[in-house]
Write a structure and sequence with these properties.
heterodimer, A: mainly alpha, 15 helices, B: alpha/beta, six-stranded mixed sheet, four-stranded antiparallel sheet, 9 helices, disordered N terminus
Chain lengths: ~350, ~250
């Protein structure tokens, strides 16, 4: 019996202690301090001294404390850069090298960020803050923004729903081997991908109410236009998904006597759909923001979505903080979606979703 | 379509089969007949057209010219409903091609329900029987990704057999398997042969061909070079190309 002595190399804090060097630690620490000063410092200062009313925010932004903070960040960042950059090649361990590099990189980020902030606060920051950062004015309108966010989501979800259904049908048609079958789908897809959504919105709206004599609102026309537009993009996503399924799947289904459409329906499309969920969700994130274009059609106030409500309140008050609130609204909706897409992509890549074949 | 050219005897008959892929002439006039209960093994170097030949038999590849006769009809005729014909010609692929989003059982029941329009219960019954037949009764609810290559290939065989085909086509079904998994698949095929299934087997398993095959066909560069009883052909091939091939693989 052979016995192998197994001594596990130190990990975590123990490894940190044994593998770091004085230089690498100094570089890393300087970089961390610099980025903390440049990012957390100003935020802490604003929170401590109050962001509302805007006058107090202006005082904070022009304060010598903030300037000192930013200058300190630049100094610490420069030290980290010089230390890290100059020494990382000579570090004896992998960990020490990573510390030195991290110090240098954080240092660069801190220097850039602090310099920009410093330059910005030395300009007409009072005027900027008065126009864009007067958050006091938001409070009475929070309910309107919530309602608007709901409308944005309604527009996006309804449009995406129509788009996905339409896209799937278009993708199957566009995947046909017969040119005559493909042609209309291709024409549709290319048309909607090749013209601006803002033009499609008004063309469809007026086309429907004048040409088709339909009695529909701008809001409803918007949903239809978003659906038709998304359909073209979703079709391309689905088509790519269908093409990514191994030929053998279609052949196996046909070999069992299924018709082409049966084989697509039961063998190919279920796999393709799972595979294209992340890109479809990316399209959805884009659509959430593109719903803002509906502003060009003129909405009733209860139909206002995030962009329209921001623009309308700005028009009433000349306070551009409402636009900032609009942007924050979009971020609140989109950031979770973006994270979800990233997580899904990672799972799909690692095969954990359990639909990716192991046959090949 | 001369009606007298359809003798009831062979299950499959190929007449002057040619296949071109663009400028590539892959099958250069194949004539062959396979009678009921016969096990025909097709061997030959890679690129010799074996797989294409097999895929022309159920018209997964459309022959460029020539005829494929099945049960007394030329199935290359455009008026033939190929979907109906294919339910009677089972095919098993090198890469298994199981549907990864369906369980072993669902892989088998899918075509029973959607193509043969069988009620769910009946399809399930047949599928369970066929899975048991290939020794996978307990794996009915596993997904292909949870099965070994050998198990996947046996599910693929069960899937084809569930349709109660008249002929089974095997396209290098053990070539993608790890060596220790080859036997379990060959055993299933041997039993199938002993039960009287008509089989056309493209293979590199010479042991299987010798033991189970009634006839061996050696193909090279798109033509049938030589055919005969497997034992004889393996022992003393007559054609020089066959000899060269045998000397490389044996």
């Amino acid at each position: 019996m052979i016995t192998v002595e197994s001594v596990r190399p130190p990990r975590g804090l123990a490894r940190w202690r044994s593998d770091s060097t004085g230089l690498s630690l100094s570089a890393g620490t300087a970089g961390t301090i610099a980025i903390a000063l440049a990012v957390i410092g100003p935020i802490a200062l604003v929170v401590a001294l109050g962001a509302t009313p805007v006058e107090s925010l202006i005082v904070t932004l022009r304060s010598s404390e903030l300037q000192a903070l930013l200058v300190a960040a630049i100094v610490a960042g420069s030290i980290a850069m010089i230390l890290g950059w100059g020494t990382y090649r000579r570090m004896p361990t992998k960990l020490a090298r990573e510390q030195a590099i991290a110090g240098a990189v954080l240092g660069i980020q801190a220097v850039v960020l602090a310099s920009v902030l410093l330059r910005f606060t030395s300009g007409r920051v009072d005027k900027f803050a008065t126009i864009f950062l007067d958050f006091r004015a938001l409070r009475p309108h929070l309910a309107e923004f919530r309602h608007a966010a709901r409308n944005t989501l309604v527009l996006a979800f309804a449009g995406e729903g129509i788009g996905i259904a339409l896209g799937l049908v278009l993708a199957v048609i566009a995947s046909s081997k017969r040119a005559a079958v493909r042609a209309p789908a291709r024409t549709y897809i290319n048309f909607f991908r090749g013209t601006p959504l803002i033009w499609q919105l008004s063309f469809i709206y007026f086309g429907l109410i004048i040409g088709f004599k339909l009695n529909i609102s701008a809001y409803e026309a918007g949903i239809i236009a978003f659906g038709l537009n998304t359909g073209a993009y979703a079709a391309e996503v689905f088509r790519a998904g269908i093409q990514s399924i191994e030929r053998g799947q279609l052949e196996a289904a046909r070999g069992l006597g299924m018709s082409y459409l049966q084989a697509m329906r039961h063998a190919v499309i279920p796999q393709a759909v799972r595979r294209v969920i992340p890109p479809l969700m990316n399209e959805f994130v884009i659509l959430v923001k593109d719903t803002s274009l509906i502003i060009t059609l003129g909405l009733l106030s209860r139909e206002y979505e995030l962009f329209t409500v921001g623009r309308s309140l700005f028009a009433d008050t000349f306070n551009a903080t409402f636009f900032v609130a609009t942007a924050i609204g979009y971020l609140v909706v989109c950031l979770p979606l973006i994270r979800l897409v990233t997580a899904l992509e990672r799972r799909l890549r690692s095969g954990l979703v359990g639909v990716v074949g192991h046959a090949a | 379509m001369p009606p007298e050219a359809a003798p009831a005897d062979p299950v499959i008959r190929l007449v002057g089969l040619h296949k071109w892929f663009g400028h590539l002439h892959v099958l250069k006039g194949i004539d062959m007949a396979v009678r009921a209960k016969e096990v025909v093994c097709v061997i030959g170097p890679s690129g010799s057209g074996k797989s294409t030949l097999l895929r022309c038999i159920n018209v997964l590849e459309e022959p460029t010219s020539g005829e494929v006769w099945f049960e007394g009809r030329d199935i290359t005729d455009v008026r033939v409903d190929l979907n109906k014909i294919r339910t009677k010609i089972g095919i098993v692929f090198q890469q298994f091609n199981l549907f990864p989003h369906k369980t072993a059982l669902q892989n088998v029941t899918l075509a029973l329900e959607k193509v043969l329009k069988m009620p769910k219960d009946e399809a399930r019954e047949i599928a369970e029987r066929e899975l048991a037949h290939v020794g996978l009764r307990l794996k009915a609810d596993s997904y292909p990704g949870q099965l070994s290559g050998g198990q996947q290939q046996r599910v693929a065989i069960a899937r084809a057999l569930a349709m109660a085909p008249k002929v089974m086509l095997f396209d290098e079904v053990t070539s993608a398997l790890d060596p220790e998994l080859v036997k379990e698949v060959l055993d299933v095929m041997k039993r199938l042969a002993s039960e009287g299934m008509t089989m056309i087997v493209v293979t590199h398993e010479m042991g299987f061909a010798r033991e189970v095959g009634n006839r061996m066909i050696f193909m090279d560069e798109g033509i049938v070079v030589e055919e005969g009883p497997p034992a004889e052909m393996l022992a003393k091939p007559t054609h020089t190309r066959t000899q060269a091939f045998m000397s490389k693989i044996l």
